[in-house]
């Protein structure tokens, strides 16, 4: 069964966005050179893994591109012409000089554009094959990780087909005066499927190179995985990649703990930290580098976050009812998947204080009995944390804040323990909300 996330989690973590100008994690990684590479990258990012062998293979492929500057230059314009060439539903050029001459000489004005696309597509494809040939000659097989070798083998097998080999030998390293009619049938007829597989693989390498380039530029690191279900989670110097000047924090949850209870005042950094952590868990299950100095994580079967949960006004549901349904969904997912990473930011914010206290306490107690899954829960209700502080399987962390010269100061640093700061009334007074209200009476 594949690693599972839902649309709410994807929105919370800002994985993808269809809105122009809105940055997402996908757009952050999208350093691809081609449209086909962009599609391959999106496919990779929409398909998280929960298998150790597959994750390690993916990780090694990306590590290879992080450590090695590949000589293969992929040109967007070149690949666009190749794509157009294969999409043309036109008769293949006959592979002899006489027919080739008449096909070109007497082509109608209406079909001249198609003729141009065919000829340019052939040229661009030949240049790509020459570049692949040079790349393979400069890439020692012994250094290529096992997961990447099938792709390089596909390139070699294609280039070693006798007609393809003969074509490249005759054209040399700098092809000129290409006689298009000689090669159209090779690409669009004899080796059509093999050529399309080769192009697909080039796009996939474009996607891997984009991930590696992004990771190197922003100092991401490749994650490590624990093979047991009760292993601890360790992340050092975690940060959110979409922030310009992020504050880095570290978190460790030991093997006997399955809950981290997070407290701290508003704007202290809880939500950003939870988004960063959820994102790191997700990227780790893509086999991608993560925004941290190091990470060791169990392999989960799913990820669920509740950070920006909207009211379901269309169904007449309140925020509290939406929260209850969300908790029910999480319970059912755990029942199905067993090992799930769960984030709840401000549990039961949509109801009165008493219900929020009792509901939070009962839910956290219930979560604490579930082995295999990991829960990160933030709350303003300090009394819940105080009631649970003797629980050995709950780790308590908080974001500190303080008042200095009647000004709020946030460090955005994660500390061990339970927050004691109650700054809500100070903010009300500082903003003169009560004074304005009194002036209205």
From TrEMBL:
<dbReference type="GO" id="GO:0006298">
    <property type="term" value="P:mismatch repair"/>
</dbReference>
<dbReference type="GO" id="GO:0140664">
    <property type="term" value="F:ATP-dependent DNA damage sensor activity"/>
</dbReference>
<dbReference type="GO" id="GO:0030983">
    <property type="term" value="F:mismatched DNA binding"/>
</dbReference>
<dbReference type="InterPro" id="IPR036187">
    <property type="entry name" value="DNA_mismatch_repair_MutS_sf"/>
</dbReference>
<dbReference type="InterPro" id="IPR000432">
    <property type="entry name" value="DNA_mismatch_repair_MutS_C"/>
</dbReference>
<dbReference type="InterPro" id="IPR027417">
    <property type="entry name" value="P-loop_NTPase"/>
</dbReference>
<keyword id="KW-0238">DNA-binding</keyword>
<dbReference type="Pfam" id="PF00488">
    <property type="entry name" value="MutS_V"/>
</dbReference>
<protein>
    <submittedName>
        <fullName>Mismatch repair ATPase (MutS family)</fullName>
    </submittedName>
</protein>
<dbReference type="InterPro" id="IPR045076">
    <property type="entry name" value="MutS"/>
</dbReference>
<keyword id="KW-0547">Nucleotide-binding</keyword>
<feature type="domain" description="DNA mismatch repair proteins mutS family">
    <location>
        <begin position="257"/>
        <end position="438"/>
    </location>
</feature>
<keyword id="KW-0067">ATP-binding</keyword>
<dbReference type="GO" id="GO:0005524">
    <property type="term" value="F:ATP binding"/>
</dbReference>
């Amino acid at each position: 069964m594949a690693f599972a996330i839902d649309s709410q989690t994807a929105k919370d973590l800002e994985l993808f966005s269809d809105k122009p100008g809105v940055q997402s994690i996908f757009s952050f990684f999208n350093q691809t050179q081609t449209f086909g590479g962009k599609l391959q990258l999106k496919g990779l990012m929409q398909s998280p893994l929960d298998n150790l062998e597959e994750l390690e293979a993916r990780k090694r492929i990306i590590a290879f591109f992080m450590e090695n500057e590949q000589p293969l230059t992929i040109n967007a314009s070149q690949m666009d012409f190749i794509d157009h060439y294969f999409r043309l539903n036109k008769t293949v050029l006959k592979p002899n000089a006489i027919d080739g001459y008449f096909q070109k000489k007497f082509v109608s004005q209406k079909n001249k554009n198609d003729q141009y696309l065919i000829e340019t597509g052939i040229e661009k494809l030949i240049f790509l094959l020459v570049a692949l040939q040079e790349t393979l000659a400069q890439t020692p097989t012994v250094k290529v990780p096992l997961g990447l070798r099938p792709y390089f083998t596909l390139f070699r097998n294609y280039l070693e087909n006798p007609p393809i080999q003969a074509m490249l030998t005759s054209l040399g390293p700098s092809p000129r005066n290409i006689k298009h009619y000689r090669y159209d049938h090779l690409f669009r007829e004899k080796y059509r499927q093999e050529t399309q597989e080769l192009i697909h693989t080039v796009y996939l390498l474009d996607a891997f190179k984009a991930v590696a380039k992004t990771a190197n530029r922003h100092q991401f690191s490749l994650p490590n995985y624990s093979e047991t279900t009760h292993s601890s989670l360790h992340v050092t110097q975690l940060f959110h990649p979409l922030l310009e000047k992020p504050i880095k924090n570290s978190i460790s949850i030991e093997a006997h703990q399955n809950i981290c209870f997070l407290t701290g005042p508003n704007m202290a950094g809880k939500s950003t930290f939870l988004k960063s952590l959820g994102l790191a868990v997700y990227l780790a299950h893509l086999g991608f580098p993560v925004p941290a100095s190091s990470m060791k994580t169990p392999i989960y079967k799913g990820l669920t976050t509740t950070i920006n949960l909207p009211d379901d006004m269309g169904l007449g549901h309140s925020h509290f009812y939406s929260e209850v349904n969300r908790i029910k969904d999480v319970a059912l997912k755990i029942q199905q998947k067993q090992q799930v990473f769960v984030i709840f930011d401000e549990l039961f914010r949509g109801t009165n204080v008493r219900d929020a206290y009792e509901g939070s306490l009962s839910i956290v107690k219930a979560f604490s009995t579930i082995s295999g899954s990991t829960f990160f829960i933030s709350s303003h209700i300090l009394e819940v944390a105080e009631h649970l502080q003797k629980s050995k399987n709950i780790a308590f962390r908080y974001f500190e804040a303080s008042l200095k010269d009647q000004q709020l100061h946030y460090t955005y640093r994660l500390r061990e323990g339970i927050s004691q700061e109650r700054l809500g009334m100070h903010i009300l007074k500082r903003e003169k909300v009560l004074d304005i209200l009194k002036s209205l009476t």
